[in-house]
Records
---
Amino acid sequence: MNNSGIFYKKRATDEEIETFKKFLTNYQVGDIKVADKTQLKNQSNTIRILVVGDVGSGKSSFIKTLLRFCGNERESKFVKTGEGSTGASDTVTMRHHRLTDTATTNYFICDTPGFPETTLNQDISMMTSHVKRYVDGYIRNGETVSYLFSLTDWFFGKRYADSTMDAVIFIARPPLDGKYRMNDRRLVHLKKMRQELEKTLGSRPFFFVITATDYIEMAKEDTAQDILQVFDGSIFIVGKEEEGRCMPSVEVYTELMKGVFGSIEEYRLEHRT
Ligand SMILES: Nc1nc2c(ncn2[C@@H]2O[C@H](COP(=O)(O)OP(=O)(O)OP(=O)(O)O)[C@@H](O)[C@H]2O)c(=O)[nH]1
Ligand SMILES: [Mg+2]
């Protein structure tokens, strides 16, 4: 994916939003990658996309903006975002949001509480196990989530067909400190997190997204370049609209969602669930 538009400054126009909305309303699973839809091993018309990330990374803000760009202002208003970092997650329950404002489509973006801050390897693999738990349908819409939950209890849990996830988006903030210098500890943490998630998820569609790109623009040129390079192949977005700074771009959001849908289609050519 090309990152030339990452320091985007314009506010989204109504036309751009209308175009994205139209795409979503007309979209059917298979449209992007599949010539003959009977080839799909999983022909469900429902898509659930899981959004995970560390506490306060910007998951809810990304979802709020995405829903607005999908033309679903009403649902967007529902999404609560954080006021600042208190260490605890502002989102405490699993929440499925339908992308479109009518029930003619079944595409959902699913918000989760943030992972508690950690740098321990052991904790990272613990968090990725929780992601697997989400993907496999152990956590239902509206359910309160605790990452303190012991994973051994997992095996006594129940899987729900209406709660499995088709793709995973990990949302990360750029690894910068208060002065917009590289924060090496955060950098290492994110690299490990990405590696560990790739390992856990296998062929399941997985997208590593750096949000709050407006912070990268505040960093020195070489620091900014380092981040763009380390996370090459990731998607860079902005979750919050703030006049005068980089703004969320409908084009980037559309490209991301088309990428997600396309990967899900490819996955469904090979997998039944
Ligand atoms: N500058 C800037 N701030 C952002 C951006 N996205 C989110 N924020 C801010 O970051 C803080 C946390 O955002 P949330 O969207 O609540 O983060 P979250 O990942 O949902 O947090 P939890 O649910 O608590 O884990 C809020 O103060 C947001 O306004 C962004 O793109 N740019
Ligand atoms: Mg949140």
Note: The chain has one domain: 14-26+44-270.
---
Amino acid sequence: MEYNAKRRGFIKGAGAALGVAAAAGGVVALYGMKRAWEPLPSVKAAGITEVELGALKTGELMRTVFRGKPVFILKKGEGMPLNDRRDVVINGESYTIVVAICTHLGCIPAWNASLGLFRCACHGGEFDVSGVNTFGPPPKPLEIPPFRIDGTKLVLGEEGDEYKRLASLG
Ligand code: FES
């Protein structure tokens, strides 16, 4: 009799211990899952591209990649028409900053420095020095990516005042 009572007590105790262990295991597993769901710092940072523009020469085109898309940054030079609705002005210099994906069917246009335009080889579409569609099938200008200006640094992926001003102009 006494043996059975001890045995029942042992079984109850073991059951409770197992329950506590299972609950603790569940908490650990949930914590691990939460950590697994959270994006890594490198992934969080992947939405932002920082570009130093200080060394870019007048009339020079710089290429970068933002969220997997090509971006052209052109520092406008002499003889290149300005466009108040699209130019990004940094320290008095005007830049064209556009996603380099043709608004027709998505080819990557090429910069033609001698003609001062972006030309898409796929169907002959053309965009002027500010990225405005001027010829062929592209239905609208090249997209201006969200950006913020930080000194001479361009931060793609954040919406600063200059971007909001241009976006409000359409
Ligand atoms: S994809 Fe550029 S003109 Fe058609």
Note: The two ends are 88 Å apart (CA to CA).
